[in-house]
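ok here's Aminoacyl-tRNA hydrolase, seq below lol
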Amino acid sequence: MSGDDAHIGAASRIAVTGRLYILKDDLSEDFIRASGPGGQNVNKVSTAVQLRFNLAGNETLPEDVKSRAARLAGSRLTLNGEIVLQADRFRTRERNREDALERLLELLRKATEKPKPRKATKPTLGSKRRRLDAKKQRGQIKKMRGRGGRHDD
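and the structure came out like this:
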């Protein structure tokens, strides 16, 4: 832990990977009414959670991870740089809260994976020959078309 991180308690941190973490201060939750079936309970109790993660203001994640996370978030990223996740699969607030947080952490874990650079390769001699043979065969088939000749009776 560096000198800047010494004042941050372990309770206010959420581990993303072994070395990376986010701060609870970068998260905010709003409880809203869930949509869909659920009887009378769905109209009275706000069990769905809308989790907001301030990606732009986050200082614990490296820039490359943040840019990949922004790309992975897609339409869930607001213009203010917040990732918004809505969880309403479960009937209780606590389960929806856990679900939203786990989905956010999964997105951030995917963002930590560096894409493998593509290495250009040349086609093999066998594949070149197969391609040319296929072209010749198609050409022969086309050559045979329409060559019925006229029948002068």
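fwiw The chain has a mean pLDDT of 77. kinda neat tbh
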